[in-house]
Fold these 3 entries.
Entry 1:
Amino acid sequence: MKTLREEAIWAVEAARHEGWIGEGDTAVLFHSWAQQKRYLDHLTAAFSHPRVLHAVAIKTQPHVEILRRVVGWGYGLEAASMEEVHLARKAGCPPERIVFDSPVKTRREIEQCQEDLHGIRFNVNTLEELNRLPSKPHFPVGIRINPMVETGAPSVYHVSHDESKFGVPIAQKSAILEAILAFPVTQLHVHSGSSMARTESAVTAIRSVLDLAEEANGLLANAGLERRIDTLDIGGGLMPEILTDSPSAMMAYAQALRRTCPELWSYQLITEFGQWSYFYTGYAYSDVEYAVQRGATRVAYVHVGADFLLRDAYVKPRGMEFIPLGDAADRPIVRTDIAGPLCFAGDYLQKALLLPQLEEGDGLLMLNTGSNAYALWSRHCSRTIPAVLGVDSEALEIRRLSPRTNPFV
């Protein structure tokens, strides 16, 4: 299998040769089917669970053609809004393989689930939301639990502190247990944060929710009820990683769960890995429109910036790799800033890079743009969304998943 770098260099040249990159395409987005399958296969192997639904987070990469391929491979989808539920259905995902996690589900949306989405995995965000449910829901009901742990995630992605808007704090255990007895709850959901630096905290959080499920099942049995908590949704949150022959962080995480939470393999399991599944599956190409010297720094102006890589510009660079193409690769190495196209002073993809000296008209390849990039496209300056190409590097095939489009003008 080609590395992402090898595939990307081949794909840009092949796309030009085959006419997928035309005169008006100042930037193009690519998605690697081989890398996508590799990551999802690795996820399945890491958990090796007999009753698992790996529901990949739609918000990380909502392109319907990519979702359709993921569903075709047998994976589920996690939806954070009713609109994402509709995307999942459009991609061919059956309701019972959709996890619906919106924190603001309306009464009408709940009615839609009851009428048209039988079997959808429905996680409430608050105990108050349970009061809106039908007495006999046509879908399994879960409660999202805030485990109140510190995971080392950046504050903007940390969702398990005591002021989080997500989930019922586990400190309210008595109220949670009362709700499980009173309402038709059969699953518990926990998600400690995104880009977690300390997965041991996530393992501890899952252990606490597993203990809660065990206690709830004891109470249900004592009350003479047949219903049980039979499903645990452990969310996602792992940092992206490059898969090599060495043991992966995902494998280590699953092994830690086996050691600490062996009972988890007796429940039905749901995961929601988005960023980990997608980060190293995408890359982008842009023309270098201008290249100017500012003191000791070369500034290269490209056609994707904070509109496409919003988190990289507004929070911090997430690990992109920049590859000058063609003759540019052989030029002297200079200090370089990569400036995006927006009328916004913070629109830099990265500063102080050491790259071959870029010139007007060069091509620049950007690796590792698969997650939370196309998904977060910003309307700021109302720029056109580039075409998206799907790449099968093993079959040496490229096809257009969507043309360049501008829904804003």
Note: Residues 61 and 375 are 5 Å apart (CA to CA).
Entry 2:
Amino acid sequence: MKRLIAVVASAGILLSGCGANEEAKHDEHAHMNHNSEATPANMKVAENPKYKKGDKVTLTEGHMPGMKDAEGVVKEVYTTHVYEVSYQPKNGDKKVSHHKWVVNEELKDAPKSGLKKGDKAEMTANHMDGMKGAEATIDDVHKTDVYVVDYKDTKTGKTVKDHKWMTEDELK
């Protein structure tokens, strides 16, 4: 009996390592930390956004499952530089490529004039597991209005509160 337990335990240990270096098959945004942090205090409220606080919108992009074509409400709107970034999470998860979005105010010591493609910066954002403190490489940058939205998940029917960030062209 002891021998059987030892064999089963050994097999479990060996198999647990299989695939450890393989890319995960789930959507990177499945580990979003909604409501995990307040909007950065130094953000500039948008003066003339297409969608205003309280407006009903439809999300046209699916950053994560249940998001595309979801009905939502605008909670906040800011004008800033917004970045698509790639980074290695601090928690040891697989590398995240082309994450949308991180705003200028969520990057340590980012200039008000914004960063450019290829620049690197430390993230202070914590809206994804392992994001805070990770070094981001800027894949793309836009100066635009960004939105915080509440929306009804199209897969679960649950309300997702304070999703950060959506760009104006991802809403209708």
Note: The first helix runs from residue 2 to 16.
Entry 3:
Amino acid sequence: MKLVSWNINGLRACLNKGGLEEVMTALDPDIVCLQEIKAQPDQVDPAVFGAYEPIWNPAERKGYSGTMILSRTAPQSYDLNFPADTCRRFELADQFGDANAEGRLITAEFDNFYLVTVYTPNSKGDLSRLGLRFDGWDPAFARHCRKLAESKPVLMCGDLNVAHQEIDLARPKENVGKHGFTNEERRGFDNLLEAGFVDTFRHLHPDRAEAYSWWTHWGSARAKNVGWRIDYWLASGSLAGKVKRAAIHADIMGSDHCPVSLEVEL
């Protein structure tokens, strides 16, 4: 099975640029997970998705955030956002709003695995949303995935808004303590690994440097490959040996992020 994850930074804009069509043609995925779609279902002609079944989770606030799954095979079931028991356990709202109403999470159940796609809240340049991340969202997400893994293996993907290790960004020393590379955010990623999940790209390519999935628009960063790896495919440890390929497709344009793909035997 081939799966693709992409922070598309605006579904309608990417469709107009032909970016999504390029991904479908070049990578021929069975499932595509999109983040930051910034669109509502009534704003997009469903015919553009062809043979793929869309699952939408738009943000309540129009033109912001949102996630989507496109699948050739419909899942058995799916859920949007965190379940009620998780919302009772963790504080997911802050001065900027309720992160659980921002269309950031889809969980789909297939025959022999769960698929989770996530658009993790950005901590913001002044770190004003770091508290939400460290005390709320990140532990809630880890618990959610752990509970799923009790019944079936889990594949999770998306924009996690953190570079885990120094190798995962071009200029680590300059960015220590800044949003996307704080100790708190990196600890949140550690918690996923300690829960038994595997960073599939690092599993196959432990020492590969200069492999990034996001670049700022400033200073020709993408042309110079001054980037960050903040988009991931993680898998339950039981699936690690079944992962055949994990790739970053920096040549595919259409967003400030590029697609990341996974090939796995399921």
Note: The two ends are 7 Å apart (CA to CA).
